[in-house]
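The authors assume throughout that readers already know how a fold can be written as discrete tokens. Each protein is reduced to its one-letter sequence and a matching series of backbone shape codes. I therefore recommend that a typical entry be quoted early in the introduction. For illustration, here is how one protein appears when written out as sequence plus structure tokens:
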Amino acid sequence: MKIIDVSTQYERSRSIYRVIGLFSLIVVLTTTIYGITMSILQNVEIVGQTFVNVEFPPIHIFPVFYMKPISWLFIAIISLVYCTLELGKERIVALSLFWKQFARIVTFCVGSMALYEVLFNFALWSGLMASGAILGNLNPDLMINPFPNPEIPWSIVFATKMYLVLTIIMFYGFHFLTKFGEASKQSAS
């Protein structure tokens, strides 16, 4: 299998998905390895803090465009899932109706639970921002969620973005499965 194939219009469009998907996979792996390595080396005890406390590329090197590693990870995961689903469309269409329906139920349930977490995190974040503003300590990147286990607190920014990514990919997967589940039902009848 060639990564870039320009023999037909169809293969050109698939090549775009392969290149973007491969680049996204590299960004996901690199960012994850960076975050885990820095957490271990710096003995960080807040889950996700190493993804939030720096900018890449560094502002002093490239002041025009920079993002936190969590933002790079956010974009890369979404584009990786999108490209993977587009490239695997034929395999998904070939699945039996049972497995498509089962996957729809799972994606809907997981997406709903992730949506709850996003809403919870935004509510918690708002409360922490309000109390931080009153106390004169207003840096959203330093806000943590110590619940339910105070020994393993989570960065609010990290948790919110990761649950938002999960919500987006689950509901997109639900939509994707619905679209192709309906197409296979219509072709079967």
